[in-house]
TrEMBL record, chains A, B:
SUPFAM superfamilies per the UniProt record, alphabetical: FAD/NAD(P)-binding domain, FAD/NAD-linked reductases, dimerisation (C-terminal) domain
Cofactors required: FAD
Molecular function GO labels: dihydrolipoyl dehydrogenase (NADH) activity; flavin adenine dinucleotide binding
Domain of life the protein comes from: Bacteria
Name this protein carries in UniProt: Dihydrolipoyl dehydrogenase
Ranges for domain Pyridine nucleotide-disulphide oxidoreductase dimerisation: 348-447
Keyword Nucleotide-binding carried by entry: no
Organism listed in the record: Solidesulfovibrio aerotolerans
Residues annotated as domain FAD/NAD(P)-binding: 8-327
Length: 456, 456
């Protein structure tokens, strides 16, 4: 770190990491410049967490009705006006952009619209059109985000093969949609368009859906996909994905060909483009190849003295709340408010599609001690006719080391689970807490108090 | 308490308190007899928490569609088949009864069906039809529950004026329904039947809806009732409520007369009927009048040596999870596993209607230090087009002493809020926790980190 606290802080990127860094820096008395080339809010607000939640909520009644109708408890139709939903989404995002701009202004932060063209020691160069500006800094916080991954033969072509942003902006649902990638993004978008009547086919080269999660979570996801009638194909290697005659044409490794009106590529995230001059300032990268050039950071989130990298661009945890937490820390560290290493505790991760998934801390490996409970006995899950799934606890030395849940409303347990894992609860602590009845959380309680056994 | 641990435990009442007491006693090695006159599960399972949740969930898509339709985001109809929902509810309750009976059997607990006819030192007398049986005990745990309150002129007559149980069993929604009582039960049943198309009129003598909660919560409830088109009348004193010509006829103190197809009396709970011989065994009561004869208990939930009272019947907290917690404690105490006073920490309470309400710990009084945040800025609430309400934190000596929330999904914060209040978090603890984004809990985070000010 710099030997004396920074006075001039430059933050690059106004996503969750950069925005919080700028506000924290200003609150700490620093002179803050925030550089953003596009919209305030980054991927999360504009093409990620938030628009997907709008579309999931706007289509929820379709699934609620379907679940009740399947049990012959209700009948009817719910027709979502996707164009109207998109118009409302735009309005809400615009309102959020305005609110964020006002917050920055109120905090005395200078917002510069432009591209980070290069970095030299103590100077960030911003380009906007043909203009450039050198902005001096004592500390620099890079919150550059990440890019949607693509590979030769599997990348958006702007015709029928698309990235996340245009798919989240559809104003009429496509008749059919191929989704490549069965991670959080692929699963949430599957849920949205399935509810809107689109015939969805999901493929992933990984041997199971939600491949980053507990294998038993993947089984529940597969079960829900079958129930919904989604053609989900884990273990399917894509040979090529192209637009042909205006439609998306997917060729699988075995030769099978699938076509659809549109296709979405959601196969992960690449590191952001390397900033000219950054390496020369001392920054280090995880890997020299351009797509894997995540900015490597140390204990204090610095990649070089006075140069911090927060959020996606450091490749630690690609989640908005992780970015925000790192942004706050980096700004405090730059301002001399803390010198302790960055230690945020466990970071929760949620999927908000059908089914919802929540995980914090360790995933159970074979031989790990676990306890669990199924949602089938939960009265709230029963009432919603949506009882698939479970909560599972991983124990280490008699303390909670990880919690995973999949099923109705599992995402609502995220904060509670984070507290329990971060405090490494014992069984006795769980026993002593009075959980409100009835609640989905009671399945987590049952898991915490369940028989502890070694995972097969 | 008895000088040596009990061997023979008799538990009376198989609601949440008695059921947990019996299982805990059996697990501790006691010889347990459980006496129940009716159905396993008590009020909670049969006529309270659980059936209301089934009906709320079964009708949720109606409200989801209505919220989206109001913003012209969706159109359609959802018609709930109430008879089918009731049939499913019965099936689920029957399955739960069977599962509970199997659990008791597996634990070696003898279940006796009958009425507690009287108590003498060391003996409980059970009557079933014309048979009676004397069951000896070393310790007795009374989990007698409570009765629906009624007053002369305002009580169910079994015709058009009804108690909760028959209203929760309707197989066709009434065209109109008067609900007397704007507490948790009245509000949840208002939500259910409003969604089913019933014209609901709600009256309460208290000056505001949800009178046990923060007055600002009542304002949000009133706002939602207006939005839904429910005729809610706090401050309306009922003079009489009778069946006339097959319809419910309500006369208010001012002389105004309202009629409806049916009326529900949900004006609170009375103590259970006093058990013959209980006073002679040394039990004490909160008040000699029959309706207020809550069984008074000391630090260890005993009302007399070896005689415990848990759950509603002791008048402490009329909530299922409080009863269960007390039942576990009493059985452990009787078995000699604990001698510490009963200290469960804060007990959360939730309302699951529209809007949801959650509260744990202190309610803010004028002059108290509070901080708060509104749901209007929460992206999940925005996505659901349901942004009324707020979360509020009450601070004492720099620590959280109470949390209240009202609004979309507020009940899902119940367990988390209970942890925070029971651990008396500081602002720094809240700041250090990474909340998953986006989530309703983030409004609680914003409240915890909000500006602290004295309540007006």
């Amino acid at each position: 770190m710099t030997s004396s606290p920074a006075k001039r802080l430059v933050v690059v990127g106004a996503g969750p990491g950069g925005f919080e860094a700028a506000l924290t820096g200003a609150a700490a008395g620093l002179d803050v410049v925030l550089i953003e080339r596009g919209k305030l809010g980054g991927t999360c607000l504009n093409w990620g967490c938030i628009p997907t939640k709008h579309l999931l909520a706007a289509t929820l009644a379709v699934e609620g009705l379907a679940a009740q109708a399947k049990q012959k408890l209700a009948s009817g139709t719910v027709t979502v006006d996707l164009a109207a939903v998109q118009a409302k989404k735009k309005k809400l995002l615009a309102a959020t952009h305005s609110a964020m701009a006002a917050t920055l202004k109120k905090a005395g932060i200078r917002l510069v619209t432009g591209n980070l063209a290069g970095v030299a020691p103590g100077v960030a160069q911003v380009a906007a059109g043909t203009d450039t500006e050198d902005i001096p800094f004592d500390a620099l916080i890079l919150a550059l985000g990440s890019r949607a991954a693509a590979f030769p033969g599997v990348k958006p072509d702007g015709q029928a093969v698309l990235g996340v942003a245009p798919v989240l902006d559809f104003t009429t649902p496509p008749e059919s949609l191929i989704i490549v990638g069965a991670g959080a993004i692929g699963l949430e978008i599957t849920t949205i368009y399935h509810r809107l009547g689109t015939k969805v086919t999901m493929v992933d080269a990984a041997p199971r859906l939600a491949p980053a999660e507990d294998p038993d979570v993947s089984k529940v996801v597969a079960q829900i996909m079958r129930r919904l009638g989604v053609d989900a194909r884990p273990g399917a290697k894509v040979e090529s994905l192209v637009t042909e005659d205006g439609r998306a044409k997917l060729t699988l490794a075995g030769g099978e060909v699938l076509t659809a009106e549109k296709a979405l590529v959601a196969i992960g995230r690449f590191a952001p483009t390397v900033v000219p001059g950054l390496a020369e300032c001392g920054a280090v990268f995880a890997d020299p190849s351009p797509n894997r050039a995540w900015i490597k950071t140390g204990d204090t989130l610095q990649t070089a003295p006075g140069i911090y990298a927060v959020g996606d661009c450091n490749g630690r945890v690609l989640l908005a709340h992780a970015a925000a937490s790192q942004g706050v820390y980096a700004a405090r560290h730059a301002a001399g408010q803390t010198s302790a290493p960055y230690a945020p505790g466990p970071i929760p991760g949620c999927y908000y599609g059908a089914p919802e998934i929540m995980r914090v801390g360790a995933i159970a490996a074979p031989g790990d001690l676990i306890s669990e409970a199924a949602f089938v006995a939960n009265p709230i899950a029963q009432a919603h006719a949506d009882t698939a799934g479970f909560a599972r606890v991983v124990w280490k030395d008699g303390k909670v080391a990880g919690i995973t849940a999949v099923g109705h409303g599992a995402s609502t347990m995220g904060t509670l689970a984070t507290v329990i894992v971060s405090q490494a609860w014992t069984r006795e602590q769980a026993e002593a807490l009075v959980f409100p009845h009835p609640g989905l959380d009671e399945t987590l309680k049952a898991a915490l108090l369940g028989e502890v056994k070694a995972k097969a």
